[in-house]
Design goal:
It is a single chain. The model has no long low-confidence stretch (mean pLDDT about 80). The chain is elongated. It is built from 3 helices and no strands. It has about 70 residues and is an all-alpha fold. This is Pilus assembly protein Flp/PilA. It comes from Kineosporia succinea. Keywords: Membrane, Transmembrane, Transmembrane helix.
Amino acid sequence: MIQIYLGLLALGHRVRRRDDRGQTAAEYMGIVVIVAIIIVAIATSGIGTTIAGNITTKISQIFGAT
């Protein structure tokens, strides 16, 4: 009885591993799509120029330029 259970458990593990193949690539693609959406939203909203201006101001303050 234990041998049958262990055999079915091993079979289920092999089937589950086969189903997970390629999942990592799909997850990376999802992350890339989300980042692209965020970049497009920043670029089209005009907040990008505000952020760039603030960064330039802070860098100028750090290095002593006015």
